[in-house]
Design a protein that fits this description.
- The chain is an alpha+beta fold and 212 residues long.
- Helices cover 40% and strands 24% of the residues.
- It has a single domain, classed as Gcn5-related N-acetyltransferase (GNAT) (Aminopeptidase, 3-Layer(aba) Sandwich).
- It has an eight-stranded mixed β-sheet, sandwiched between helices.
- It is globular, with a radius of gyration of 17 Å.
Length: 212
């Protein structure tokens, strides 16, 4: 069966737009790099996503390149959140193909995953929850219903965002990360149980591997 590919997702409000990089952005790519660096060079912004921390602008330039390559190979689809008033990139939401997600994380769940971050200057207004909800609506229109997210157990703000977007905790991945499922109460009971069992088995395997 051929890999599922997403149609372009683009939506906006009076103040914000959410879309992938476009050809018209090439003339403004250095500013976008700088905007993303502002976010990911912040220890506060990356407290719960330390692997995304950037120490120099060239790393931000590499990120915008991966946005394009991800779309081309269908592994993941990164949407940039723009503040239209200032033509400023203020965050990113990435949709990860289920096959790529299973391979990357090492356990077969079959869920498309969403990952996101937002400039700390825009925290506290429910913006990411609204954007995440609209993104999920677009995915549903494209026939996707198995959608998940991974969240640090101590990241209260992100947990709140997921809850507002109709995600619910399903199972523990490890001692510091939980797995959340969108539209949890509507999911098949056996499907939810299978997800818990898969993650439980993975935790056991990880524990044994670490002991050895």
């Amino acid at each position: 069966m051929p890999r599922k590919r997403l149609h372009k997702i683009h939506f906006e409000s009076e103040l914000f737009s959410v879309r992938p990089l476009e050809e018209s952005d090439l003339n403004n790519i250095r500013k976008i790099d700088s905007d993303l660096f502002e976010i990911l060079n912040s220890k506060e912004n990356t407290r719960f996503i330390p692997d995304k921390y950037l120490s120099n602008i060239s790393q931000a330039q590499s990120i915008t390149f991966t946005f394009v390559s991800g779309y081309m190979n269908g592994n993941y689809y990164s949407l940039i959140i723009f503040d239209k008033r200032f033509n400023k990139a203020i965050g990113v939401i990435t949709i990860i193909n289920s096959e790529f997600a299973d391979k990357s994380y090492g356990f077969p769940l079959g869920y498309w995953l969403v990952d996101y971050y937002l400039n700390k200057k825009y925290w506290g207004h429910g913006l990411m929850a609204a954007i995440l909800s609209q993104t999920i609506l677009n995915l549903k229109r494209q026939g996707l219903i198995r959608i998940g997210a991974i969240c640090d157990v101590n990241n209260a703000s992100s947990i709140k965002t997921l809850s507002r977007a109709n995600f619910k905790r399903c199972a523990k991945i490890d001692y510091k990360q939980d797995f959340y499922i969108w539209n949890y109460n509507e999911m098949n009971v056996l499907s939810r149980f299978a997800t818990r069992v898969t993650l439980f088995i993975n935790r056991i395997r990880t524990t044994i591997k670490n002991r050895n």
